[in-house]
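RETRY 2/3 - previous attempt timed out on the joint model. Re-submitting the same 234-residue input unchanged.
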Amino acid sequence: DTGVSQDPRHKITKRGQNVTFRCDPISEHNRLYWYRQTLGQGPEFLTYFQNEAQLEKSRLLSDRFSAERPKGSFSTLEIQRTEQGDSAMYLCASSPGGGPSSREQYFGPGTRLTVT
Amino acid sequence: AQKITQTQPGMFVQEKEAVTLDCTYDTSDQSYGLFWYKQPSSGEMIFLIYQGSYDEQNATEGRYSLNFQKARKSANLVISASQLGDSAMYFCAMREGSFYNQGGKLIFGQGTELSVKP
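RETRY 2/3 succeeded.
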């Protein structure tokens, strides 16, 4: 049973560089979520997809952030012109699209971003 | 606005004893879901237990139970017979509204760090 995977697990980048993270959800899960977690805080919602459609974006998702899920399977989250404030753990989660078993979200291990 | 409050930044419990982690929530919706997740030092969020706003009985999953008091808007997690492996961060989360109509995004509290002593 393959869970949610994320790549890379760690990323160190210099301020101003672009970074891209990938998330592979559990197969056949048609909902995919991105969250950001800073040290000592709970995760904060960024955006979510139903299949390939991006249905909601948080105000936290500035213009420098873009997320895609082109074929309704894996997703990428890109941050352009990174800032030190972008340093955080980026968590991806997926869930099935319907039915009582779809209540919970299954999280990946996260990508820890450090902007120097 | 919807909000989750966890007032205990850290808790200690002796191995084999029970512990209660507090969670209160604020929402104007009648339909919502409440979740507890465990986050070990490895970072992955592990789902523990779920309670729907219309569920009449408190949810239980093995050693975990959720003490749901709707009128007080509280959803406390009870861990019975604590184990050393229970040491982790615990997050309470809420999904507001219907999963089908409102996407299912979760709103998390700030977490409680639980330490189990041998």
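The mean pLDDT of chain A is 92. Closing ticket.
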